[in-house]
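Colleagues,

For the teaching module next term, I've prepared a clean inverse folding example: a structure given as tokens, and then the sequence designed for it. I'd like students to try predicting residues themselves before seeing the answer, so please don't circulate the second half yet.
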């Protein structure tokens, strides 16, 4: 194995002081919710809001002054880009970052602000990588791979060093998997420090390439995912070999579970996680029996989520939890009817967000138009009580 505990400990000493030692805290509420004892490692509190700084800085420091003088290049969908850009700028090194054209705007802007030259090329990470290698050869830059590099893996492994120092009682580490750099580094550190500890990977069901590789299945990935950081087809060969040697289990999770996890982390822990950063918690929400009663550590590995996307996730969470509903109301077409029904909804504790008066496309009588109310309620029980209250007052109301 080309990465060992000494490499990870050396990386920890090398990057100390320039990368945050993030907190690892017990969550009483998430523990009650999942049935496990949950500790969260807040890697979203790094300066660039991601664990990727650790490996990037370790690599940059090991290049030496001569290597850094020539400059570096990387391909990334976002977090690796920002980690390389930030620490390259700190060290006075030119950084060129090649990103796929579909990279979220917030990650493109953040990378540029940190001082890197951003090139948008290709539709996938593989396309971006091909272009990055062409620029590397042409301009004599050093390529910094986001995950298939022993030095990068050693840097990422420092997350597990810290977690087991901060919470030595942990029995299971549940780690998001994109290319495999984080989980392979954490697995090496954790198994060396605490033999027998479980290290489990989590992938989006739409992008479970590591699961497929480890189970000797053809790699078939694609489609939309909220976890862009996990949307990797070509996982790293070195991470793959490390995980295969440990017999690592990978758990694919549904997109809905990832969305729920983002909402939980905001509502319960008051912390922002991107899709990939919330994937570890998604595994506990989707498979609670798998972790019941165990002491589980989860790295919230990134917090860079587009604000528009985050807004949509939060609103969908309200709908999913029955706190935002659409009511279809049929009422007589007479003056004051709308005001009377609106007053009834308010008296029942509902907060009207939107109203749409439907006269042409409704299915009711032309004399009794439909009105659709988007209403905020406390929960599903409150919604049912509100509907019952309207019906007792002679108003035909139902969920749409």
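(Answer key — instructors only)
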């Amino acid at each position: 194995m080309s990465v060992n505990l000494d490499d990870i400990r050396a990386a920890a000493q090398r990057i100390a002081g320039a990368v945050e030692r993030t907190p690892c805290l017990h969550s009483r509420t998430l523990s009650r919710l999942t049935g496990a004892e949950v500790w969260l490692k807040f890697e979203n509190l790094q300066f660039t809001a991601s664990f990727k700084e650790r490996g990037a800085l370790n690599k940059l420091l090991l290049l030496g002054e001569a290597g850094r003088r020539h400059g570096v290049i990387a391909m990334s969908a976002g977090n690796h880009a920002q980690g390389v850009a930030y620490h390259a700028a700190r060290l006075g090194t030119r950084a060129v970052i090649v990103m796929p054209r579909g990279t979220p705007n917030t990650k493109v802007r953040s990378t540029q602000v940190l001082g890197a030259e951003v090139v948008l090329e290709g539709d996938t990470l593989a396309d971006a990588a091909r272009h990055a290698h062409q620029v590397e050869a042409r301009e004599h830059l050093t390529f910094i791979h986001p995950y298939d590099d022993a030095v990068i893996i050693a840097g990422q492994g420092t997350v597990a060093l810290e977690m087991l120092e901060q919470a030595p009682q942990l029995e299971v580490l549940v780690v998001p998997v994109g290319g495999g750099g984080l989980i392979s580094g954490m697995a090496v550190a954790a198994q060396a420090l605490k033999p027998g500890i479980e290290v489990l990977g989590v992938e989006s069901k739409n992008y479970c390439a590591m699961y497929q590789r480890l189970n000797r299945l053809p790699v078939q990935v694609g489609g939309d995912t909220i976890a862009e950081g996990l949307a990797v087809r070509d996982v790293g060969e070195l991470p793959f070999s490390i995980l295969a040697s440990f017999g690592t289990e990978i758990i694919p999770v549904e997109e809905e579970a990832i969305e729920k996890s983002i909402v939980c982390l905001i509502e319960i822990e008051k912390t922002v996680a991107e899709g990939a950063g919330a994937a570890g918690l998604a595994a506990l929400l989707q498979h609670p029996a798998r972790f019941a009663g165990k002491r589980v550590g989860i790295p919230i590995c990134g917090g860079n989520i587009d604000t528009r996307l985050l807004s949509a996730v939060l609103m969908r969470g309200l709908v999913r939890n029955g706190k935002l509903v659409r009511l279809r109301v049929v009422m007589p077409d007479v003056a004051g009817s709308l005001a009377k029904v609106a007053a009834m909804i308010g008296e029942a504790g509902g907060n009207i967000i939107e109203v749409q008066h439907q006269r042409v496309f409704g299915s009711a009588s032309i004399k009794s138009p439909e009105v659709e109310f988007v209403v905020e309620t406390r929960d599903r029980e409150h919604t049912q009580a509100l509907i019952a209250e309207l019906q007792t007052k002679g108003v035909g109301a139902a969920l749409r």
